[in-house]
């Protein structure tokens, strides 16, 4: 078990043995934990013991605690008093809240991006979608998951509003957890052709179409999740008050 957790946390390109030549800083540990969570190598509910993580990264427990607190602020980690830290497990209700928030935020992101669009930004978006397509062709599941989420963060970063970008980073990270919890088997988080269509609408400065596409895209992701067990069968109030 310890071996598999070490493997999940190791940077994919780091060579065995060579990775221990220097102690990783807090930001490096943060990035490795975050990537392992976002790529679904560490699954929701996984215990993140301070001692084990301190051993794995060869740093103090205080440094681990600092990183876990940061990840808790980003809602990727849940800290339970007396029990420790776990990879967060968003509830179906939290998942629906996240998609409702994204339906509000992302049309605004797209509008602002079109207003500030440059050829360089457009080229960067097209390069990103090309990387997504390459990952799909290679069957690289980890890269597909990560790049799908990063596409939406990139839209917000290129839109040039730092508050929107920060909100999108948090929303996309939680979405990644939600997908690993509730996605129907064999479904992907984002359909690559929908990203390409969205970029075409952005390139044409067609705000209405781009906003419609982004809303539909988010609805497709939400529909691919299993968030509605029993179609409201757990709504005791409406069932019992009849
Ligand atoms: Zn997407």
UniProtKB/TrEMBL annotation:
Q: Which GO terms describe its molecular function?
A: DNA binding; DNA-binding transcription factor activity
Under Pfam families, the record lists: FCD, GntR
Q: Where is the HTH gntR-type domain?
A: 23-90
InterPro entries for this protein = GntR_C, TF_FadR/GntR_C, Tscrpt_reg_HTH_GntR, WH-like_DNA-bd_sf, WH_DNA-bd_sf
Signal peptide range in chain numbering: none
Q: Report the domain of life of the source organism.
A: Bacteria
Q: Which UniProt keywords apply?
A: DNA-binding, Transcription, Transcription regulation
Q: Where is this region: Disordered?
A: 1-25
> What sections of the protein cross the membrane?
none
| This protein's name | GntR family transcriptional regulator
The record lists the organism as Comamonas antarctica
């Amino acid at each position: 078990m310890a071996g598999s957790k070490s493997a999940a946390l190791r940077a994919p390109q780091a060579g065995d043995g060579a990775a221990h030549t220097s102690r990783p800083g807090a930001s490096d540990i943060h990035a490795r934990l975050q990537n392992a969570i976002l790529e679904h190598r560490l699954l929701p509910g996984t215990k993140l013991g301070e001692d084990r993580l301190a051993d794995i990264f060869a740093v103090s427990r205080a440094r681990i605690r600092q990183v876990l607190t940061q990840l808790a602020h980003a809602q990727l980690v849940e800290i339970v008093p007396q029990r420790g830290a776990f990879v967060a497990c968003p509830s179906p209700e939290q998942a629906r809240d996240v998609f409702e928030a994204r339906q509000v935020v992302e049309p605004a992101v797209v509008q602002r991006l079109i207003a500030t669009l440059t050829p360089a930004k457009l080229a960067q978006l097209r390069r990103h979608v090309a990387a997504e397509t390459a990952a799909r062709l290679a069957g690289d599941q980890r890269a597909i998951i990560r790049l799908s989420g990063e596409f939406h963060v990139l839209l917000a970063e290129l839109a040039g509003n730092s508050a929107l970008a920060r909100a999108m980073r948090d929303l996309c990270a939680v979405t990644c957890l939600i997908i690993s919890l509730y996605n129907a088997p064999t479904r992907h988080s984002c359909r690559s052709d929908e990203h390409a269509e969205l970029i075409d609408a952005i390139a044409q400065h067609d705000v209405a179409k781009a906003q419609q596409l982004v809303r539909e895209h988010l609805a497709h992701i939400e529909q691919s999740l299993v968030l509605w067990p029993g179609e409201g069968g757990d709504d005791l109030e409406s069932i019992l008050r009849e």
